């Protein structure tokens, strides 16, 4: 269990997830080659060398068993997982650490720490796996004192209902731990955000994370059966229901509240039977927009593939080694009960109708008879395909690398893509110039539109990362919101997207959120500055 | 267009929807035969014979073009569609009519009437098709004066986006009118609540209505892309997005608000291509619970049938003429693009695995090559299969007939069903005795549980309907909520379910709703008494 291990203070996950010196050196050599300027990995500061502001509070004896003011706890809870944060961490900059970190083991301890914080005008930062990439976990400068409330000791599966296929998870359980326990009974949650190895159920629900399924049920929202949350106003627990039309949904008011209304302590999530039948295909397109038209045809046919992700030529080359300039569409079906041959054949036929190229023998069908497609190691392969792994390897090497993601209706595509590339590309050209890259893939798709995910990178002067990033991000936010998209499809709002989100949502929605916050958190102890200005 | 015709004041829909004297007479004869007591259809009061309280307001000249104080308008807007309401109507009892009815034709007129009501402390009842069966449209006794705001003149499709498959509907458009317009371009909304012919887009969204699809996307919620609503605090318009993870959803706060936060004026809804391929099967089960186990197997296989509805033996006999004591499971698949033979074969095989009986040749597959399955008239057939049609025929004959519907996780099924039947059955026995019926079908099903729909009926003394109904309904609410269900799956809360809903939802959820209402409707003009006590 990961929960027993110490978290890293400068990369996603735990100490064992930190890239080795060899990996960091190799990354530095690659960076040197890319830019022509020799760089070395920056030294990792020792914990002893990091000086923190003295805690601005005293932990009462009654809480000292599970509330810590130790430096290591405070530095591992100062930042989320955004690269600018990790860059500060690796440079030993911890200007606004929490004054203490609480590790409640029970609902009673959760109540105790919240009561203590409220009584002492202390900011509370609900903390799951710490992988926020939108500055959702930081202590605001304005706070007189702050406690990070880390749920990692509330990490059990409280109950599994195999008949309804649902389980009651404590909020602090990590993805791999939950899957390991479900596997033994043939079930799975199948929710794999990029942060899967290091993020928690509570974090997923609080931030509306996007998961495994590229179509149909894409967000964790769709798997939530009920939520239990502690707010300053008291406990909030919704009823387990497979469906309801009774009033505005109690769950949907909490899903996406990002720790501003309460601390999610547990929730019931819907499960799947483990897939037995699978089918997959990788289809090449000479033209990116022909490929996205194929995606539209397939998603609108409602075949509901588990995977329907297209990479533009830049990403196809980088992530999948596709030669030349081809977009790559990855189609995948899976089922516990139904062979998937016909589904993949339909989808491949549609892709070919739109100019897609794939050999018949490259359409892989596992009819549940063997392990020929090598799916056993899929979770491992999945993990390594994602940027989260070894995220820290490039820190401090003068390489900027980030992503932004959105969703847009099909009628605005591809002009939306052209606008984004033109706007963000212009700023990349101004700020980075040669060596800048901008690429796109679809992480999720809907009958009425795709969720495009953009990545950018390029060499920047060491020390100039933040300033240049800010220029690019501002251009990206302006372009996305200006062209009709959402400022985030599944990364959440946090503090990073708050201002752009205000331009996107109904103005009264902000007033409604403030009204909800006043009701549940009247003294604004919880994650102030996230989502809304209170 | 239905919108041009006058509404009936004593049954669902318009004057042309009223049952004829012949139909009413036949219903009376059937009732006489059932009870052994001869009854005749009650006379329909003439509009002239109905005396109403004088309007407690004066319509300013600036609004007189579209605000009426005519008796016919006021009596057609006094009640929703619940049988006890219609019974009062047919008896000429209109104690709490709205003082005026507004028919705005534009957003400007909508603003004008709302401003007028706010300035004059007037209750506003947003009115769609008037089919509420939960007392969602009544004027509260406490109101000093009230205006029903009927959206039927805002009934256009403002825009159709064929690429994204979505359309922008004004709130007052009726189901058949919108389908007729979409049909010409090969699209369909495919949302058929029981009230489909007489209900409106705005009403569906305001009340979270349940539709055509028995699995996967069951509620209108799943088809909402954006909403435009006028509240006393101003306009609220969400952005068209295929998916988003940005904060608590702006749409989900409005969906299900039942006219308490604002008046929905238009919304973008997702559309479907018209189905070409279809497959259906009716499978018999000697045992009701064996049948429901088959439903669980099929829905958990994620084949996503459009229809997966099981009728218990009582309903199978009444609605489908199934002889003996058999439950009937109706399975249906449809697709615009993909032949459905394999899907129906898989589903039928699962049903047979659970003891279901069907001949091979009774599995009907239309591979898009002809009209052999007679689907052209399906909307008409659908309408007539529902209780809404000729609902008024039995009014005043001493027959009580109503339904209640819920949802429950599978782990509590079938004990949930046993509890409901025992509790409600006992009260039916006490109040009605011989001749009482209680039956169940599933209207919608989810991987984690079904949405059971109960019907009860029986002869009661004429004049005693309300008292007996109240005893039965109280028992039903208590049983449903006590056994873990929701007090409504798609009929909405209104005033009828408010008290029971309070026992079901998190207590703080009520405070949250009141906070939202204070924000958007600070003087509580909008539908006071619905959902929450303000």
Task: Spell out the blueprint of helices and strands.
2 copies of one chain form a homodimer.
Chain A: H1 21-35, E1 67-68, H2 71-76, H3 83-90, E2 100-102, H4 107-119, E3 123-127, E4 146-150, E5 157-161, E6 166-170, H5 175-183, E7 187-188, H6 201-207, E8 224-231, E9 234-237, H7 250-254, E10 263-270, E11 272-273, E12 277-285, H8 288-300, E13 307-311, H9 313-320, E14 327-335, H10 341-353, E15 364-366, H11 378-385, E16 399-405, H12 415-431, E17 437-446, E18 449-459, H13 465-482, H14 498-504, H15 507-520
Parallel strand pairs in A: 2-4, 3-4
Antiparallel strand pairs in A: 1-2, 5-6, 6-10, 7-11, 8-9, 8-10, 12-14, 12-15, 13-14, 16-18, 17-18
Helix pairs in contact in A: 8-10, 12-13
Describe the structure.
The structure is a homodimer of 534-residue chains. By secondary structure, chain A is of the alpha+beta class. Helices cover 30% and strands 19% of the residues of chain A. Chain A contains 15 helices and 18 strands. The first copy, chain A, has helices at 21-35, 71-76, 83-90, 107-119, 175-183, 201-207, 250-254, 288-300, 313-320, 341-353, 378-385, 415-431, 465-482, 498-504, 507-520; strands at residues 67-68, 100-102, 123-127, 146-150, 157-161, 166-170, 187-188, 224-231, 234-237, 263-270, 272-273, 277-285, 307-311, 327-335, 364-366, 399-405, 437-446, 449-459. Chain A has a 5-stranded antiparallel sheet with strand order 5-6-10-8-9. In chain A, strands 1-2-4-3 form a 4-stranded mixed sheet, with helices on one face. A 4-stranded antiparallel sheet of chain A has the order 13-14-12-15. In chain A, helix 8 crosses helix 10 (341-353) and helix 12 (415-431) runs antiparallel to helix 13 (465-482). The longest helix of chain A has 18 residues, at 465-482. The radius of gyration of chain A is 23 Å and the shape is globular. Mean pLDDT of chain A is 94; it is low at 374-384. Chains A and B meet through strand 9, helix 7, helix 10, strand 18 and helix 15 of A and strand 9, helix 7, helix 10, strand 18 and helix 15 of B.
